[in-house]
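Example S7 (structure tokens).
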């Protein structure tokens, strides 16, 4: 500013309230009265092995909910409006509404996405570095895990060649095959989009920035909904959502093979 000139007007900070809804995953279980009696009643009524059919059936329902959540987490887009945001909704899209904020008009709420309009291209180190350099150097992130679809993961393994390193400790934690990329574990996620890679910064300033949140202390709420002459109806419910405090620290590389 030259002598005699007035100072420019200061910029005005803008605020938007981020808001997420908890979503309910629910399974209904109906079990016949005779079947329940046969599983928990006198010894001569019990099923082979003395299994508690109600407990076993509720356990199966819990596993089905867990599988559904696992599938939903890995999608590029939410399967239905009733589903909580998937990882793809958070880290692989820049023009949707996340946590009640329109990201098309809020660049700071957008992740870094390198895509090719749905046309697959060969995975290269330059493409990987484009995402890593942007989230690290420009957005101050430190990706600590990469989730990768099968095709993209195989391409990365082949790209690394003799330098590929498998991460046994992370493989035990994640239950899938993991290799290391510049010290970052890359997990092979069979239910993800095969040609996608999510670069995830799950920690920010010592706090969890990308976290799966439960609404209740209990993992699953089990209730008897109705009782009939011949059968009882039970519900198994799980209330949760996926929360990301720092979308701008996340990245995605799409359309690679």
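Recovered sequence:
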């Amino acid at each position: 500013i030259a002598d005699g000139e007035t100072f420019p007007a200061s910029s005005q900070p803008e605020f938007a309230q981020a808001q997420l809804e908890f979503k309910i995953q629910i399974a209904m279980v109906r079990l016949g009265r005779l079947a329940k009696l046969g599983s928990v009643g006198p010894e001569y009524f019990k099923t082979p092995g003395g299994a508690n059919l109600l407990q076993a059936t509720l356990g199966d329902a819990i596993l089905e909910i867990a599988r559904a959540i696992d599938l939903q987490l890995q999608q590029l887009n939410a399967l239905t409006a009733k589903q909580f945001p998937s990882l793809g909704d958070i880290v692989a899209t820049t023009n949707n509404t996340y946590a009640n904020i329109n990201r098309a008009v809020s660049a700071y709420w957008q992740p870094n996405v390198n895509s090719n309009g749905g046309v697959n291209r060969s995975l290269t180190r330059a493409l990987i570095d484009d995402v890593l350099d942007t989230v690290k150097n420009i957005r101050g992130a430190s990706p600590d895990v990469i989730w990768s679809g099968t095709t993209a993961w195989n391409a990365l393994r082949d790209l690394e060649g003799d330098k590929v390193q498998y991460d046994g400790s992370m493989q035990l934690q994640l239950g899938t095959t993991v290799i290391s990329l510049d010290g970052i574990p890359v997990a092979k996620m069979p239910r993800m989009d095969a040609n996608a890679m999510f670069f995830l910064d799950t920690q920010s300033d010592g706090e969890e920035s990308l976290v799966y949140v439960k609404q209740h202390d209990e993992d699953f709420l089990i209730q008897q909904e109705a009782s009939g002459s011949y059968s009882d109806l039970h519900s198994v419910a799980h209330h949760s959502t996926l929360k990301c405090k720092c979308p701008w620290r996340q990245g995605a590389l799409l359309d690679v093979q």
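Notes on this example. Residues 42-46 have pLDDT under 50 and may be disordered.
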